[in-house]
Specification:
It is a single chain. The chain has 69 residues and is mostly beta strands. It has a domain at 3-41. The protein is 0% helix and 22% strand. The protein has strands at 3-8, 14-18, 38-41. The radius of gyration is 16 Å and the shape is elongated.
Amino acid sequence: MPIYEYMCHKCHNNFALLQKVDASENESACPQCGSVEVKKIPSAFSCTWPDGSGSSSGGSIPGGFSGGG
C-alpha cells in the first residue's frame, strides 16, 4: 500500500496516510482535527535500485536511461 500526503483545509495540517491505491480523498480524515475536508498533495518519492543505491534527488538511472526527450 502506498503512502499518500494530504493537507487539511480546516486546520492546514499536512499529514501522510498509508492507504489502498484506489482510496479517495473523502475516505481520509485529518488526524489533528478530524475534518474530512482534505486535499491530496504531491509528495516526494524515493526508490532503491537492486544494488541498494538510490535517492529521491533525481540522479541518473542505471542502464544508461536518462528519461525525458
